[in-house]
């Protein structure tokens, strides 16, 4: 009988589960609807039911969960989650432990992804910064092989670093946050405002809804507005990463999240901008790379989370 860890990646729409063996291989996967308005008890019960069904007779030795929001990592309490209605001070670790009877760890999704990239991405470094680009912008820090959580479990909030002091107001209440300028929601809204009549992008959106994927398609096919939007986003991200590099001195910066699938459009301007905003240092070891794990990073990182929490 094999011994596996269960990794759970809780999203606003769907929750993904994976059984991970001792070699870091996902041996079984499943997806359930999050049903965010039904409350934590419902989600815990459905996670347990689905996990046991995909495990068959395999042993689940530990459980890890990644979830967006403010998490007390050591107590396993979800203080607040923007994706889950009514989730406030939810003792998720305790609830899952009662259901599974094994060690349980709960972490912020961006931190969990960063840990997954570090443990299973094969980047060959002990110093890694991972940021996620999608509906929101998150970040996770691994330094000297340790996941850095901070005094208040709030380290790595890359999306809420300020770019423009008098900029637009972010959903968090601050002004000029990076997330307000480079999230998928912002990029598509910007494209709608700038789109020219009879342009290639306009022709594409006449047939289907404008999404980051469609925006990337237009950019690859020569649409100047789409290309400029990705270039501007890359410049802003590189500027923000300059501060990360000065403070943390990572060796590898990993780009994850939905927009990372447009890495051919965004990583080059990120690198160019980062070089401009990073203090020169002879022999600096620094790479900016697209995630090798993609959406597996959340499951893998969650499965390995109980090792450190």
TrEMBL record:
<dbReference type="InterPro" id="IPR043129">
    <property type="entry name" value="ATPase_NBD"/>
</dbReference>
<comment type="similarity">
    <text>Belongs to the ROK (NagC/XylR) family.</text>
</comment>
<dbReference type="GO" id="GO:0016301">
    <property type="term" value="F:kinase activity"/>
</dbReference>
<dbReference type="InterPro" id="IPR049874">
    <property type="entry name" value="ROK_cs"/>
</dbReference>
<keyword id="KW-0418">Kinase</keyword>
<protein>
    <submittedName>
        <fullName>Glucokinase</fullName>
    </submittedName>
</protein>
<keyword id="KW-0808">Transferase</keyword>
<dbReference type="InterPro" id="IPR000600">
    <property type="entry name" value="ROK"/>
</dbReference>
<dbReference type="Pfam" id="PF00480">
    <property type="entry name" value="ROK"/>
</dbReference>
